[in-house]
Structures are given as structure tokens and as C-alpha cells.
Specification:
Elements: H1 2-27, E1 35-40, H2 74-87, E2 91-97, H3 108-125, E3 128-132, H4 147-153, E4 162-165, E5 172-177, E6 180-185, H5 200-215, E7 219-224, H6 235-238, H7 247-256, E8 261-264, E9 271-278, E10 281-287, E11 299-304, E12 307-311, H8 320-326, H9 332-340, H10 342-361, H11 364-367, H12 376-390, H13 400-405, H14 419-432, H15 442-465, H16 469-475, H17 482-494, H18 499-516, E13 527-530
Parallel strand pairs: 1-2, 2-3, 6-7, 7-8, 8-10
Antiparallel strand pairs: 1-11, 4-5, 5-6, 9-10, 11-12, 12-13
Helix pairs in contact: 1-5, 1-7, 2-3, 5-7, 9-10, 10-14, 12-15, 14-18, 15-17, 15-18
Amino acid sequence: MKRLAVFLALTLLFLCLAPAAAAADTAADTAALPVTFAVASDLHYNEPDPALTYFTEDPLFGHANRRAALENESGPIIDAFLADAAADDAVSFVLISGDLADNGKTKPEEHYAVAEKLARFERESGKEVYVINGNHDASLNPGDTSFDDFKAVYADFGYDRAVSRRGEDCSYTADPADGVRLIALDSCSKTKSTEDGMTLSKVIWVMREAAKAKREGREPILMMHHNLLDHLPAQRIVSHDFIVRFHSLTALLFSLSGVRVVLTGHEHCSDAAVKAVLPGRRIYDFATTSLTMYPLSYRRFTLSGDTLVYGAPAVSKIDTAAVAAATAGYTPEQLSLMESDLAAYSLGYFKAGVKYRLALGLSDEKLGIAPGEPFYGVAHTAAAGLLSALDTPYAGEKGLAAGAARFGMALPETDAETPWDLITTLAAAHYAGEEPYTPDSPEVRLLLKTAAFILRTVLPDTADASLFAAANRLLSSDQTGLARRFAESAASLAGDADPAGYLAAALLSPLLIEFGCDGDGVPDNAGRVVLQTGLF
């Protein structure tokens, strides 16, 4: 009932304010001069560890953490981004859309370190930085960095130049350039970890500030941490903590108030999304990926009247000597790759981190099972079987391709060494933007077939470990695998089309489309859009 009441209130707000917003939209044309600016998000600065900790046996990337973020390297990466912005003569100012410090809520010293970097950048470049908080930066939970603390630490980065403020949170407006009005919106929950904290009063505030900017002949650019539009199919369902509630209606209200460009982060993906809220009226949401995760990219925009040109350059060089000096244990091979090909290093680290996180999720501890508990054998065998299959090479006599052939399945040829390699490649494409895959791509079809094959093997192996275990022990000391043999025989008769294959396709297709395919027609990383102004 509470959600319904909020929805009705927003609807009434739309009916009441839409005419005024439309009038403001036509009251004065925005007079934005050509202006170029850089945008970074989710810096996630970490104090470097004194020494590397290895979680797996991978000699290059065994230290990759479950967040797949370059934590020890975060300081030099931020320094490199700021150096790029300083060296780019066209860039007038820098925007940062939240999560400046990874542990900012509990380690204010991380905020102090970031603020020092930003102050040095402003002092040496003469360019201004404007920030807004993310979910890692502040909260009202006892002992955490408060919102007032955040505003105090970053007082010189937007708040000192504020045209207006919302006193109850970190929101403010500022004029970073002629013809531009920045609306920096605190979209975070006051107490919860990742979900948004959007309220009716925040929506009204944005609408009023945007309409005011339009009346003053300024282009309102909205910056907030949480996404406004879907950057995954059905994001509100599959990744609800990363997008604002009632996002479609909120986007309509913001658009009618004059907002055409929204800059967000939080999802850690480089993705551009557009919504046609009414005929002839669109609103764009440019999500910027985490600066300290693969591909270490940020955004560069040039706004000229109704035209917005954008790109997504990446940090390509960092001070590896500073990395090695701060954290002991880096090998010459790691430092050499970091120095010669930072993109390859960050990709390898990302893939290793994603694998580590997903594999960790299938451990007994994460599954909440222990020896002696009911169904432990089934759950443990299923998880172990899945992990083993994901680590099995596609090629070779004992590879997945040969195993699938025994089930009457033909796996497409691939350059991927293992399913893990394929999965992490698709994930990397999502975070980097400009996903090259479609539902018909060989990689996507291979993963669907791989999933179907793994289901065919893991399920009977699980049965062998539980229901048929006693019978197997009677027949052979090494367990003959009655269920596996039965499944192979049945599958050879059924061919590719069987319930397991359909189940795999049904379960995995939406996930593959989310992470590997982007069909909204808006280039993610580099493009040119004409911002629409008319109602019809």
C-alpha cells in the first residue's frame, strides 16, 4: 500500500507540474556554449595493503579479489585519470558521480586521501572538480561517516560553489561553465547499503531546479550515483539496488522539467541508455564504469547546444613504482605486464576476480551446508561437479566437446579455453560497454549448449552420489556411475532437444542478454546524439 501511495502521489505531481515544466522548457532556450568535461565514477579508493594476499594459485592474478577491483593500484589509477584531465586542454571541469572511497563509511582517512588528490589537481590544473556521494561514502548508521562529514571533507569540490543546496542530504546545484547548471543529487539511502534513497521531495527538488535552470538559459545536467534508466534488461527486477524506484515515472518527470542528460554510476558498467518519455522527447542516462575496474575508463563529453558528443577513454599508464613501493609482493612479471599493457593486466585481473567470486559462491560455507546435514551430499556434489565442469577445457580427449559428443551434442568451436574463460569474457564485455555479442553469436550459443551439457552431467552425477551410491558400491569399488550411463544413453536417443537444454536456455538467456548483448541502439562508449527538446 505504501508503494501504491507513493506512485499515486508521483502521478498527481506529474499532472500538476507537467504544464509548468513544459512552459519552463519553452521559456528560454538553453545557451550552453561548447563545453568539454570529464566524468569518472566509483573511484573506490583503497588504502593499499602492506603486502599481496593470494586467494588462488594463479601466479599472475591469484591476488584478484572478489570485487575484481584493482584496490592496491587505486591511488595511482586516480592520479593517472586526473593527470589525463589536466593535460586535456579542452576539458573545463571534472565530475565524479559517487563512491569516491571504497571504505569511506568506516575509514574517513580514505576520503581524506581522495580529497587531497582532488585539491592538488585543482591547484595545479586550475580546473574545478564537482562530486556527489555514493553508497560507499556515507550513511546515518552509528559510527559511519555522516552526510555532514562527507560535505565537510569535500567542501571545496562543488559545495563551495553551490547555487542551492538541500540541507537534509548531500544534494546541491552549481554552474561549472557558462550555459550549464549541474544538479548533483544525493540518490543514496540514509541507512541501507546499496539501494537508492529516492523520495518524493527529492524528485520535486530536481524538477524545480531543472525548470529554474531552463528559465535562466542553462542546460540542466543531472548527476547522481544510482541509475535512472535500465542498463540491464529488467534491471529493477534482477539488479534492483542499482536503479531508482519508479524509474520510468521519475524519468518522465525529470524530462518534462528540462533534464535531457543524466550521469550515473553504481552498476560499474559503461553503458548509454535512452528513454523516449513522450513523442519527440528523450532522456539519456550515461552510466560510467568504475574507474578502478577493467577497463579503467572514464567519460569525456562535449556539449554544444543540442548536440552531445561523448567518448570513453581509459587510463593506460600508472606509476608502477609507486604500486610496488606501497604493497610488497608484486613479482617482476606482474609489474612488467602492468607497465607494458595495463589494459591486459586489468582484464586478466577482472576475469580472475569474477571467477573467484562465483566459485566462492558455490563453496559449502556460502551455500550454508556442512557434512552430516540433510542433503549435504546432493548439494556438495552438485556444486563440486559444476565447478569441475567450468574448469574443464573444451578441447582434448577428456574435454567438454568430446564429453558432449557422447550425449549427441555438438559444441561450436571456440577460442575459449574453458567455460570460465567464456563466462568472464562475456562479463568483461558488459562492464566495458559496446558489447559485440548478439543472441545469435557463436559465443552465446556455445554458452547455452555448455549449460545444457553441464546440466546433463551434473544432475546424474549428483544422483550417483546420493540415490545410487549404495548400488554403485555393490557393483564396483570405483562407482560405475549408473545415473551418468543412463543419462548418456537416453541423451544419445533424444539428441540436442531435451528438457535440460530448454531449461538451460530459459535460465541463461536473460543473463546472457544482460551481460553480453546490448541492443538498445545507443553506442555505449563513443557517439553523438542530438538532444530533443519538443513535446511532440
